[in-house]
Amino acid sequence: MAKKTTSKKAAPLKPAAKIKAKVVAKAKPPVKAKATPAQAPPPAPVKAPVVRRGLSKSDLAHFKALIIEKRKEILEELETLKASMMDTQTGEYVTENSTYSLHMEQGTDTMEREKTFLFASREGKFLNYLDDALKRIEKGDYGFCLDCSSLIDKERLEAVPHAQLCIKCKLKRGR
Questions:
Q1: Domains of the chain: which residue ranges?
Q2: CA nearest to 120, candidates 174, 77, 149
């Protein structure tokens, strides 16, 4: 019996790093699932709404009563100013008191009328601030600073019930 010999040469051994590199290079990328038109992309994560802890119901009722009281006072003052500016019988604005008034008296009368109009304008503006504060109470925004959204101190709201800014933001704005 004759021995069969094969003339195969043994391949030289390669370093392990080269083998790993070839294996990694030959690896196929992962297959992505194709989105069909009927599938919608997954919804974005929804952030939970930030809950602001405001004033208690009893505090809100207290400030609402305070604002309503101030509002009544302003309306009474406006009626008084209106009565001093207008003739109650004719409903027209009061002009000079006498046809024989001197030039200086006419200037004084005019200045007093202008001052009365300015007071009435200022009171009307304050009335608008109070009305706005009442609207914020109804919406649930009362007591929060418009700039930084922090809670305004109760002491500040006692002093200025129509305040829209905390003391820090008010000082930043510089009046």
A1: 57-143
A2: 77
d(CA 153, CA 108): 45
The dihedral region occupied by 146, where left means phi > 0, alpha psi between -120 and 50, and beta the remainder, is alpha
Max alpha carbon distance in the chain (Å)? 159
- Distance between CA atoms of 110 and 96, rounded to whole angstroms? 8
Kindly report, residue by residue over 94-143, the tens digit of the pLDDT. 555 555 556 566 677 778 888 888 888 999 999 999 999 999 999 988 99
Query: 97 and 112 in contact (C-beta within 8 Å)?
Result: no
Q: What is the spatial distance between Cα 136 and Cα 162, in angstroms, rounded to a whole number?
A: 10
Tokens standing for residue 73: 């006072």
Give the CA distances from residue 113 to residues 79, 83, 119, in Å, rounded to whole numbers and listed in that order.
15, 12, 10
Write out the DSSP string of 80-138. Answer: HHHHHHB-TTT-SBP--S-TT--HHHHHHHHHHHHHHHHHHHHHHHHHHHHHHHHHHHH
Tokens standing for 1?
């019996």
Architecture of domain 57-143: Up-down Bundle (1.20)
Q: Which residues are bridge partners to 151 per DSSP?
A: 144
SS3 (DSSP) at 169: helix
Q: What is the pLDDT of residues 128-137, one digit of tens each?
A: 999 999 999 9
